[in-house]
Amino acid sequence: MPDRDVVAWTAMVTGYAARSQNTRAWGVFCEMLRKEIVPNAFTFSSVLKVCKGMNYGQQMHAAAMKHGFESDTPVMNSILDMYCRFVCLPLANQCFTEMRQKDLITWNTLISGYEKFDSTQSLLVFSRMESEGFTPNCFTFTSVTAACANLAVISCGQQVHGGIIRRGLNSNLALVNSLIDMYAKCGSITEAHKIFNEMPVRDLVSWTSMMIGYGAHGYGEEAVALFEEMVKADVKPDQIVFMAVLSSCSHAGLVDQGLNYFNSVMDHYKIKPNQEIYGCVVDLLGRAGRVEEAYELIQSMPFKPDESVWGALLSACKTHSLPGLAKLAALRVLDLQPNVVSTYVMLSNIYAAEGEWRESARMRKLMKEIVSKKVSGKSCIEVKNQVYSFVVGDTVGTHMERAYQTLGLLFQHMKEIDDEDEVDCLIHAIENGV
């Protein structure tokens, strides 16, 4: 084209962005600017999706403001999505607050952004959205249901489920799949099973969600039966399905059946096992006490094992008291992921048991250095319709004194019925913020 206008340039940027060819899309946009073609709203909306980093995104935000798009809701929604994508939630919230006009996409973008990293805030934004008169759609409810699942707050999840039914959205496949996942993660496997059975149409995600739910709650045989039912229904499994069924076999002690499934991954289904699948098989063998076989499997892997595979072997060595192999596995984990505090604790205990006190002390020192740099983990629990949050190493708060008293009683009870050395190691680990 000898004469290209902004529409032609934008079409190229949008086309590359739609095909996830981000580098090319960005290159076309930069060339467009060099030729002094002024971008329009569609250009900004497209290029914001392909920003290579936060710095580029902020530059696009500034450029959009410079060209007078602060009142253009689709452009502002794209800026908001960019901040959420780069997990810069304070700037996302600031952008949201400063927006002159908000639509349902605006609210959905912020709710989805918070869902992955601050589920409580996601639910608060949802509540505020409804109070301001916006009607949630399937996308809204999918994010909110996921937030309830992350927090394991079943009462809130049930209210959301009711809202889905009232609005006639309970036939949406993706939304029903999210409900199965939510109920399973909240501990209501019966309700998850009921929803699954009532589905007129199921996709691979439906089967996988139910299988993962069964496996997580110790219903290994049910998960295996569901896998067989899925295969009979001519639904082709993928890597995630095999991870779910292998994990279920591991927890249920179905070792031979799990190994048969592993062999069928390549032979029958022509799926190449990934790190996670190998990790599941290592865990399967390790839990059954076949630790040497697990180690041999690692040595025969067609690619370099990652920390999840070595971590599975390390757990097996700890369970079956194999300090030599445990040391090897722990060192491999630290080579690949040096910030895992629990690995330092385990190594320290192994060195102490072998009388290598200097190495044990060195591991403890390294562990404390990492703990001081880490952001404290937070857990949530729902009790009588109220959600309580706990931060690792927390010593203040309304219920902390009672919590530590109860923890002390539990440790005392463990000492009475279990191995004292193991309990002492656990207490020491918790005191160090693990």
TrEMBL record:
What domain of life is recorded for the organism?
Answer: Eukaryota
Question: Which Gene Ontology terms describe the biological processes this protein takes part in?
Answer: RNA modification
Q: Which Gene3D superfamilies match?
A: Tetratricopeptide repeat domain
Q: What is this protein called in UniProt?
A: Pentatricopeptide repeat-containing protein
Which windows of the sequence hold PPR repeats? 5-39, 172-202, 203-237
- InterPro entries cross-referenced by the UniProt entry: E_motif, PPR_At4g14850-like_plant, PPR_rpt, TPR-like_helical_dom_sf
Q: Does the keyword tRNA-binding apply?
A: no
| Cited Pfam families | E_motif (PF20431), PPR (PF01535), PPR_2 (PF13041), PPR_3 (PF13812)
Q: What is the native source organism of this protein?
A: Linum tenue
A Gene Ontology molecular function term for this protein is: RNA binding
What keywords tag this UniProt record? Answer: Repeat
Q: Which PROSITE patterns match?
A: PPR
